[in-house]
Here is the input.
Amino acid sequence: MDPYKVLGVTPQTNDDDVKRAYRELARKYHPDNYINNPLADLAEARMKEINEAYDMIMNERSGRGQGAAGAGARQQYGGYSSQQRTYTGANAALYSQVRQAINQGNLGMAEALLQRAGARDAEWFYLMGTVYYRKGWYDEAGRAYTQACQMDPSNSEYRTALNNLNMSGGYGGYRPMAEASMCDFCLQMAVCNCCLNACCGGGC
Here is the structure.
């Protein structure tokens, strides 16, 4: 896979433009835009490819290369490790399920599980921040990561997540248009067509 071709950029493209290209593709192919859509699997595969391409380019440019270190970084999202952790305490089983859901890309389930938690500790805010990050809601992710770091300042995983988010620029918290659908689009096109026909006397 040529990561530059995946993102539609070249090796000469500067970092800001690489990030901009990544954001545009992420908005287009984010799985939240394809819920209950027959193209959901294709969009998820494309999003995975986009994430991997972006990580490969940024790893290469930061001097980590594409070897073992680069491969390890591609398994993380904003400092989140895809490996399971061993938890103790009241929310132990729930947090393990949340990490599993995140690893599987099931962000809706992860968020629903977190909403069931009785107490919101540092790990809760960290995992919720990761859900927001994966959704592309960077403002919310930043607030959640910051809260996690404030509650547990010695946790390196939390600090890494927040630092990675800050280095990526934050991007203003993109929210997918959940209300939009193909039916809405078709309806809007039909309305526009009627208006054109009325104005142009039957069409141009």
Observations:
- Residues 65-76, 171-188 have pLDDT under 50 and may be disordered.
- The two ends are 45 Å apart (CA to CA).
- The chain has three domains: 1-74, 84-173, 179-204.
